Amino acid sequence: MLLAIDVGNTNTVVGVFVGEDLVDSWRVRTDPQATADELVLLYRGLLGDYRITGVSICSTVPAALRELRRMVVRAFSDIPAVIVEPGTRTGVPILIDNPKEAGADRIMNTLAAHHLYGGPAIVVDFGTSTNLDVVSVRGEFVGGALAPGIEIALDALASRAAQLRKVELTAPRSVIGKSTVEALQSGMIYGVAGQVDGLVRRIRTELGAHATAIATGGLASLVIKESETLDHHEPHLTLIGLRLVFEKNL
Protein backbone atom coordinates (compact mmCIF):
# COMPACT_ATOMS: atom_id res chain seq x y z
CA MET A 1 0.00 0.00 0.00
CA LEU A 2 1.32 3.40 -1.01
CA LEU A 3 0.74 6.47 1.17
CA ALA A 4 0.60 9.61 -1.02
CA ILE A 5 0.75 13.04 0.66
CA ASP A 6 0.18 16.34 -1.18
CA VAL A 7 0.89 19.29 1.13
CA GLY A 8 -0.77 22.47 -0.13
CA ASN A 9 -0.84 25.97 1.31
CA THR A 10 -4.34 25.53 2.75
CA ASN A 11 -5.03 21.79 2.83
CA THR A 12 -3.08 18.56 2.78
CA VAL A 13 -4.56 15.74 0.69
CA VAL A 14 -3.69 12.21 1.78
CA GLY A 15 -4.40 9.04 -0.17
CA VAL A 16 -3.78 5.30 0.07
CA PHE A 17 -3.22 3.29 -3.11
CA VAL A 18 -3.40 -0.45 -3.57
CA GLY A 19 -1.74 -0.90 -6.94
CA GLU A 20 -3.34 1.67 -9.24
CA ASP A 21 -6.50 1.97 -7.16
CA LEU A 22 -7.02 4.82 -4.70
CA VAL A 23 -8.81 3.04 -1.86
CA ASP A 24 -9.07 5.89 0.66
CA SER A 25 -8.35 9.61 0.88
CA TRP A 26 -8.59 12.49 3.34
CA ARG A 27 -8.29 16.27 3.24
CA VAL A 28 -6.85 17.92 6.38
CA ARG A 29 -5.79 21.45 7.21
CA THR A 30 -2.13 22.24 6.54
CA ASP A 31 -0.45 23.45 9.72
CA PRO A 32 3.14 24.62 9.09
CA GLN A 33 3.63 24.76 12.87
CA ALA A 34 2.79 21.09 13.44
CA THR A 35 5.70 19.10 14.84
CA ALA A 36 6.84 15.69 13.63
CA ASP A 37 5.37 14.11 16.78
CA GLU A 38 1.98 15.68 16.09
CA LEU A 39 2.13 14.47 12.49
CA VAL A 40 2.93 10.92 13.64
CA LEU A 41 -0.25 10.94 15.74
CA LEU A 42 -2.29 12.42 12.87
CA TYR A 43 -1.20 9.86 10.29
CA ARG A 44 -1.48 6.91 12.64
CA GLY A 45 -5.05 8.00 13.36
CA LEU A 46 -5.91 8.35 9.66
CA LEU A 47 -4.28 5.14 8.50
CA GLY A 48 -5.62 2.83 11.18
CA ASP A 49 -4.96 -0.78 10.09
CA TYR A 50 -3.58 0.08 6.63
CA ARG A 51 -0.16 -1.55 6.21
CA ILE A 52 1.87 1.04 4.34
CA THR A 53 4.71 -0.24 2.15
CA GLY A 54 5.78 3.02 0.50
CA VAL A 55 5.44 6.81 0.88
CA SER A 56 5.36 9.50 -1.81
CA ILE A 57 5.26 13.20 -0.87
CA CYS A 58 5.15 16.60 -2.53
CA SER A 59 4.83 19.95 -0.78
CA THR A 60 4.52 23.64 -1.59
CA VAL A 61 5.12 24.59 2.07
CA PRO A 62 8.83 24.33 3.03
CA ALA A 63 8.20 24.61 6.79
CA ALA A 64 5.65 21.79 6.71
CA LEU A 65 7.92 19.61 4.57
CA ARG A 66 10.74 19.81 7.11
CA GLU A 67 8.63 18.30 9.87
CA LEU A 68 7.06 15.83 7.45
CA ARG A 69 10.52 14.46 6.66
CA ARG A 70 11.09 13.89 10.37
CA MET A 71 7.70 12.20 10.66
CA VAL A 72 8.59 9.81 7.84
CA VAL A 73 11.86 8.91 9.55
CA ARG A 74 10.01 8.16 12.79
CA ALA A 75 6.94 6.37 11.48
CA PHE A 76 8.05 4.86 8.16
CA SER A 77 11.81 4.44 8.45
CA ASP A 78 11.82 0.84 7.19
CA ILE A 79 9.96 1.44 3.90
CA PRO A 80 10.92 3.30 0.69
CA ALA A 81 9.95 6.97 0.51
CA VAL A 82 10.07 9.47 -2.36
CA ILE A 83 9.95 13.22 -1.72
CA VAL A 84 9.47 15.24 -4.90
CA GLU A 85 12.04 18.03 -5.09
CA PRO A 86 14.65 19.30 -7.57
CA GLY A 87 16.65 16.27 -8.71
CA THR A 88 13.86 13.73 -8.21
CA ARG A 89 13.30 11.61 -11.32
CA THR A 90 9.80 12.49 -12.52
CA GLY A 91 10.01 11.88 -16.25
CA VAL A 92 8.64 15.40 -16.85
CA PRO A 93 10.91 17.80 -18.79
CA ILE A 94 10.39 21.30 -17.36
CA LEU A 95 10.57 23.82 -20.21
CA ILE A 96 10.42 27.14 -18.34
CA ASP A 97 13.11 29.76 -17.75
CA ASN A 98 13.94 28.53 -14.24
CA PRO A 99 12.85 24.90 -13.72
CA LYS A 100 13.38 25.20 -9.95
CA GLU A 101 10.45 27.63 -9.80
CA ALA A 102 7.97 24.96 -10.84
CA GLY A 103 6.04 23.71 -7.81
CA ALA A 104 6.17 19.99 -7.13
CA ASP A 105 2.37 19.78 -7.25
CA ARG A 106 2.32 21.28 -10.76
CA ILE A 107 4.83 18.70 -11.96
CA MET A 108 2.78 15.87 -10.42
CA ASN A 109 -0.33 17.22 -12.15
CA THR A 110 1.54 17.35 -15.45
CA LEU A 111 2.74 13.76 -15.05
CA ALA A 112 -0.73 12.45 -14.16
CA ALA A 113 -2.55 14.45 -16.83
CA HIS A 114 -0.32 13.14 -19.61
CA HIS A 115 -0.59 9.60 -18.23
CA LEU A 116 -4.40 9.73 -18.16
CA TYR A 117 -5.28 11.92 -21.14
CA GLY A 118 -2.18 12.39 -23.26
CA GLY A 119 -1.32 15.80 -24.64
CA PRO A 120 -1.55 18.59 -25.26
CA ALA A 121 -3.45 19.23 -22.04
CA ILE A 122 -4.26 22.03 -19.63
CA VAL A 123 -4.55 21.25 -15.94
CA VAL A 124 -6.71 23.75 -14.03
CA ASP A 125 -6.03 23.32 -10.32
CA PHE A 126 -8.55 25.15 -8.12
CA GLY A 127 -6.84 25.63 -4.76
CA THR A 128 -5.34 28.49 -2.76
CA SER A 129 -4.39 29.83 -6.18
CA THR A 130 -5.97 28.87 -9.48
CA ASN A 131 -3.17 27.27 -11.52
CA LEU A 132 -3.34 26.56 -15.23
CA ASP A 133 -0.52 24.22 -16.22
CA VAL A 134 0.17 23.44 -19.87
CA VAL A 135 1.33 19.97 -20.92
CA SER A 136 2.83 19.34 -24.35
CA VAL A 137 2.16 16.38 -26.63
CA ARG A 138 5.34 14.78 -25.24
CA GLY A 139 4.37 15.30 -21.61
CA GLU A 140 6.56 18.35 -21.03
CA PHE A 141 5.62 21.10 -18.56
CA VAL A 142 5.77 24.20 -20.75
CA GLY A 143 4.42 26.85 -18.36
CA GLY A 144 1.02 28.26 -17.56
CA ALA A 145 -0.89 30.94 -15.70
CA LEU A 146 -1.55 31.70 -12.03
CA ALA A 147 -4.48 33.62 -10.55
CA PRO A 148 -5.83 34.19 -7.02
CA GLY A 149 -7.94 31.29 -5.77
CA ILE A 150 -11.65 31.65 -5.12
CA GLU A 151 -11.35 31.77 -1.34
CA ILE A 152 -8.39 34.19 -1.49
CA ALA A 153 -10.40 36.57 -3.67
CA LEU A 154 -13.43 36.34 -1.39
CA ASP A 155 -11.31 36.94 1.73
CA ALA A 156 -9.74 40.01 0.07
CA LEU A 157 -13.15 41.48 -0.75
CA ALA A 158 -14.47 40.86 2.76
CA SER A 159 -11.41 42.46 4.38
CA ARG A 160 -11.16 45.51 2.11
CA ALA A 161 -14.82 46.45 1.55
CA ALA A 162 -16.83 47.51 4.61
CA GLN A 163 -20.20 46.57 3.10
CA LEU A 164 -19.13 43.09 1.97
CA ARG A 165 -18.63 39.87 3.91
CA LYS A 166 -17.72 36.24 3.40
CA VAL A 167 -20.52 34.14 1.95
CA GLU A 168 -21.15 30.47 1.26
CA LEU A 169 -19.46 29.45 -1.98
CA THR A 170 -22.35 28.12 -4.02
CA ALA A 171 -23.93 29.08 -7.34
CA PRO A 172 -26.75 31.65 -6.94
CA ARG A 173 -30.15 31.50 -8.64
CA SER A 174 -28.95 33.64 -11.55
CA VAL A 175 -25.95 35.64 -12.72
CA ILE A 176 -27.82 38.83 -11.81
CA GLY A 177 -27.74 38.67 -8.03
CA LYS A 178 -30.81 40.00 -6.21
CA SER A 179 -28.92 40.54 -2.95
CA THR A 180 -25.39 41.29 -1.84
CA VAL A 181 -24.88 37.63 -1.01
CA GLU A 182 -26.07 36.47 -4.44
CA ALA A 183 -24.03 39.18 -6.18
CA LEU A 184 -20.89 37.99 -4.40
CA GLN A 185 -21.65 34.37 -5.21
CA SER A 186 -22.22 35.27 -8.86
CA GLY A 187 -18.93 37.14 -9.06
CA MET A 188 -17.03 34.32 -7.40
CA ILE A 189 -18.50 31.30 -9.21
CA TYR A 190 -19.46 32.66 -12.64
CA GLY A 191 -16.59 35.15 -12.60
CA VAL A 192 -13.97 32.47 -11.98
CA ALA A 193 -15.60 30.19 -14.58
CA GLY A 194 -15.39 33.02 -17.12
CA GLN A 195 -11.78 33.75 -16.17
CA VAL A 196 -10.80 30.10 -16.60
CA ASP A 197 -12.69 29.77 -19.88
CA GLY A 198 -10.96 32.87 -21.23
CA LEU A 199 -7.50 31.63 -20.26
CA VAL A 200 -8.12 28.11 -21.59
CA ARG A 201 -9.29 29.52 -24.95
CA ARG A 202 -6.24 31.79 -25.19
CA ILE A 203 -3.89 28.91 -24.34
CA ARG A 204 -5.52 26.70 -26.98
CA THR A 205 -5.12 29.49 -29.54
CA GLU A 206 -1.46 29.94 -28.62
CA LEU A 207 -0.82 26.20 -28.83
CA GLY A 208 -2.57 26.00 -32.17
CA ALA A 209 -4.36 22.84 -31.01
CA HIS A 210 -7.31 21.72 -28.92
CA ALA A 211 -5.76 20.84 -25.58
CA THR A 212 -7.77 18.67 -23.19
CA ALA A 213 -8.68 20.70 -20.10
CA ILE A 214 -8.71 18.83 -16.79
CA ALA A 215 -10.09 20.32 -13.57
CA THR A 216 -8.67 19.31 -10.21
CA GLY A 217 -8.26 20.74 -6.71
CA GLY A 218 -10.55 21.15 -3.74
CA LEU A 219 -12.70 23.89 -5.29
CA ALA A 220 -13.05 22.43 -8.79
CA SER A 221 -16.55 21.09 -8.15
CA LEU A 222 -17.79 24.68 -7.59
CA VAL A 223 -16.80 25.82 -11.07
CA ILE A 224 -16.83 22.87 -13.44
CA LYS A 225 -20.62 22.90 -13.97
CA GLU A 226 -20.47 26.56 -14.99
CA SER A 227 -17.45 26.25 -17.29
CA GLU A 228 -17.67 25.92 -21.07
CA THR A 229 -14.10 24.67 -21.62
CA LEU A 230 -13.30 22.09 -18.92
CA ASP A 231 -13.45 18.57 -20.36
CA HIS A 232 -12.73 16.33 -17.35
CA HIS A 233 -12.82 16.42 -13.55
CA GLU A 234 -10.11 14.42 -11.77
CA PRO A 235 -10.13 15.40 -8.07
CA HIS A 236 -7.13 13.22 -7.18
CA LEU A 237 -4.81 14.16 -10.04
CA THR A 238 -1.88 15.15 -7.79
CA LEU A 239 -2.14 11.90 -5.80
CA ILE A 240 -2.07 9.92 -9.04
CA GLY A 241 1.06 11.82 -10.02
CA LEU A 242 2.64 10.89 -6.68
CA ARG A 243 1.86 7.24 -7.34
CA LEU A 244 3.46 7.44 -10.78
CA VAL A 245 6.60 9.18 -9.53
CA PHE A 246 6.99 6.62 -6.75
CA GLU A 247 6.91 3.85 -9.34
CA LYS A 248 9.51 5.67 -11.44
CA ASN A 249 11.88 5.91 -8.46
CA LEU A 250 11.50 2.39 -7.10
TrEMBL record:
Q: Which GO terms describe its cellular component?
A: cytoplasm
Record flagged with keyword Hydrolase: no
* Assembly with partners or alone: Homodimer.
The UniProt entry's GO biological process terms, in alphabetical order, are: coenzyme A biosynthetic process
**Pathway terms, separated by semicolons:** Cofactor biosynthesis; coenzyme A biosynthesis; CoA from (R)-pantothenate: step 1/5
Q: How is the cofactor bound?
A: A monovalent cation. Ammonium or potassium.
Q: Which NCBIfam families match?
A: baf, PRK13318.1-3, PRK13321.1
Q: Which cofactor does it need?
A: K(+); NH4(+)
Question: What keywords were assigned to this record?
Answer: ATP-binding, Coenzyme A biosynthesis, Cytoplasm, Kinase, Metal-binding, Nucleotide-binding, Potassium, Transferase
Q: Which family is it part of?
A: Belongs to the type III pantothenate kinase family.
Residue ranges spanning the membrane: these are: none
What this protein is called in its record is: Type III pantothenate kinase
As its record notes, the protein acts as a catalyst of: (R)-pantothenate + ATP = (R)-4'-phosphopantothenate + ADP + H(+)
User: Which gene codes for it?
Assistant: coaX
Q: What is its EC number?
A: 2.7.1.33
* Residue sites binding ATP per the record: D6, V7, G8, N9, T10, N11, T12, V13, T128
Q: Which Pfam families match?
A: Pan_kinase
Which residues constitute the catalytic centre?
D105 (proton acceptor)
Q: Where does substrate bind?
A: G103, A104, D105, R106, T180
* MF term (GO), any: pantothenate kinase activity
Q: What does the record give as the function of this protein?
A: Catalyzes the phosphorylation of pantothenate (Pan), the first step in CoA biosynthesis.
Q: Where in the cell is it found?
A: Cytoplasm
User: Signal sequence: where?
Assistant: none
